[in-house]
Amino acid sequence: MNPLLDQLQPYPFEKLRMLFSDVTPNAAYKPISLGIGEPKHPTPAFIKQALADNLDGLASYPSTAGSEALRKAIAGWLERRYSLPALDATTQILPVSGSREALFALAQTVVDPSDRSALVMCPNPFYQIYEGAAYLSGAQPYFVNSDPDRNFAPDYGSVPEDVWARVKLLYLCSPGNPTGAVLTLDDWKELFALSDRYGFVIAADECYSEIYFKPEAPLGSLEAAYRLGRHDFPRLITFSSLSKRSNVPGMRSGFVAGDAAVLKKFLLYRTYHGAAMSPSVQSASIAAWSDETHVAENRAKYITKFQQVTPVLQEVLDVALPDAGFYLWAKVDKYTTLSDVDFAKRLYAEYNVTVLPGSYLARDAHGTNPGQQRIRMALVAEVTECLEAAQRIVRFVRGLKN
Question: Where's the Aminotransferase class I/classII large domain (predicted)?
């Protein structure tokens, strides 16, 4: 067996399952889960129809590079969304079977397995795929803690030069999971300068980009690069997905875009990896990327939800409206000394509400775990259910105070 597999930690939801294994939740309440970031809004009918209308595609082997029509649809969306000039749909865009598998696979392309000193840099807290990708590429993860005083941006200025010299790949998530923070143009300028100096590839995970609460849409990595004069996107690969944007997580449809030289090698890897997208899913994806009406309607649901739920939770938790995304990243120590793990366990037992302990989404690094005393709440259900969960959390915390 591959010994690198032994370095993988249980996924956060497996830890949560083990935490709850000896708990019988209060049967007086119906279960409400804010634990898993799985979109719950209905899939738009026109996307389902596009899939159903193209089932003949199941009779054909898919191309790893995807159809020209899909690549052009993605290019058109990128150009409209980020005010970019025409992208080369052949060399700068590659459809993938969801951003998750591509985020993992990129490390296998970028990291030299013979380099035993290689590092893969990750934000902390983070999406656990980044860590697993690092280990299975033969590298080690290096965590940079998010700083609440910097809108949860990782403090890259704290990283020693000898560490930067070993970094081959840097993962980041903007809007962030779990913090919801969006990188600024100055943040990107700093990262691009570091990439130029040390030669590492940047993997920009942007799967939450279309759920936001301000009038202006979040800045994207390709957009930032172009505005800073980096028109060929050197050493930059952006990842996006239809899962959250269009409520189709089961379709497993996304794309990567950016540096043509990196994508050429990535396509070679994926040709052997075998994760090509079904022609039927490609047809439905073209329909989804070509329409913005359903995206605006979906975003409006989240805006309503967050505007109603956040003030309720602010009565007992240290929590604020994020820049974007569908998570609330709340501190639980406003009125209680419970740890984030104990908070989640007792809330589940007493009120049948599931939240994810923040420490499950982070690692001990540089003397601290930045997820401690925090919980992540995914507001993915309809507004009435999320409000009911918030009201239960308020009653739970107030009970702890008495």
Answer: 31-381
Can you tell me whether residue 262 is helix, strand or coil? Answer: helix
pLDDT of residue 186: 96
- Class of residue 157 by CB neighbours under 10 A (exposed 0-12, middle 13-18, buried 19+): exposed
Residue 83: per-residue pLDDT: 97
Break the chain into its structural domains and give their ranges. 3-42+294-401, 46-291
β-strand partners of 142? 121
Closest to 154 in 3D by CA, of 317, 362, 377: 362
Structure tokens at 125: 């807290």
The Cβ of residue 33 has, within 10 Å, a number of other Cβ atoms equal to 20
**Is 3-42+294-401 a CATH 3.90.1150.10 domain?**
yes
What is 267-321 written as a DSSP string? Answer: HHHHHHHT-PPPHHHHHHHHHHHT--HHHHHHHHHHHHHHHHHHHHHTTTSB---
Residue 258 CB contacts under 8 Å (≥ 6 apart), including other chains: 92, 221, 222, 233, 236, 237, 238
Q: Look up the CATH number of domain 46-291.
A: 3.40.640.10
Cβ(89)–Cβ(72) under 8 Å?
A: yes
Residue appearing with tokens 């073209």: 286
Angle between helices 99-110 and 128-136 (to 10 degrees): 30
The whole-angstrom separation of Cα 289 and Cα 299 is 15
CB-based contacts of 3: which residues, under 8 Å, 6+ apart?
none
Dihedral sign for Cα 60, 62, 68, 73, please.
positive
Residue 33's nearest CA partner among 311, 399, 392 is 392
Both tokens assigned to 300: 């409006």
| Contact assessment for residue 137 and residue 113, using Cβ atoms and an 8 Å cutoff | yes
d(CA 184, CA 218): 9
Q: Is 18 exposed, middle or buried (0-12, 13-18, 19+ CB in 10 A)?
A: exposed
Q: What's the pTM?
A: 0.97
**What is the per-residue pLDDT across 152-209, written as a single tens digit (0 to 9) for each?**
989 999 999 999 999 999 999 999 999 999 999 999 999 999 999 999 999 999 999 9
